[in-house]
Amino acid sequence: MPAGVRTVNRDFTGRPHTGRMESDSRSRGRRHRDALALLTGESASDMERGAVMLGLFAHAVVYLLLTGAQAAWCAVTAVRVWRRRDAGWPAALRDGVHRPTLAGLVTATVAYAVLRRLGLAAISRRARGHAARNAGAGS
């Protein structure tokens, strides 16, 4: 690169690429603060708090199950490929990777990502409603 030339990473809109990340972190911080207020605020009903806590617990269980399944699949696949290495690496990879399990894990991972987004949106909606009720009650 010639001396004195500055480059700026830009996304397709022409803005520096970090601009989008900064707004995401601000909105993430706001969502986190609103959700924390929902869980710790006294104006939230026990049913509302319980629903959020059950959702968070279900998320933790699903995440752990999915991560465990992915780790187990990787370990089993590595062993299967290693045992078939004498036939050559391409054949070992072709025969050692159980594709139906891989397809199931990919499907489960995509479903998890979609449901996680929906869950975050639901919690954010509840938290915004809670914040609006508190702002209206405080005035």
Element layout with pairings:
Elements: H1 18-40, H2 46-83, H3 89-96, H4 99-138
Helix pairs in contact: 1-4, 2-3, 2-4
Q: Helix-strand pattern, N to C?
A: HHHH
Helix vs. strand class = mainly alpha
Oligomer: single chain
Largest sheet: none
Supply the number of helical segments.
Answer: 4
Structural domain tally = 1
**Which percent range fits the helix content?**
over 70%
Strand content: under 5%
Number of strands: 0
Distance between the termini: 59 Å
Q: Give Rg in angstroms.
A: 23 Å
Judging from the principal axes of the Cα atoms, what is the shape?
elongated
Whole-number average pLDDT? Answer: 80
Which residue ranges are poorly predicted, with pLDDT under 50 across at least 5 consecutive positions? none
How would you summarize what this structure contains?
With 139 residues, this protein is mainly alpha-helical. The chain has helices at residues 18-40, 46-83, 89-96, 99-138.
Q: Can you describe what's shown?
A:
This protein has about 140 residues and is mostly helical. The chain has one domain (about 20-139). About 80% of the residues lie in helices and about 0% in strands. It has four helices and no strands. α2 packs antiparallel against α4. The longest helix is centred in the last third of the chain and has 40 residues, at about 100-139. It is elongated. The termini are far apart.
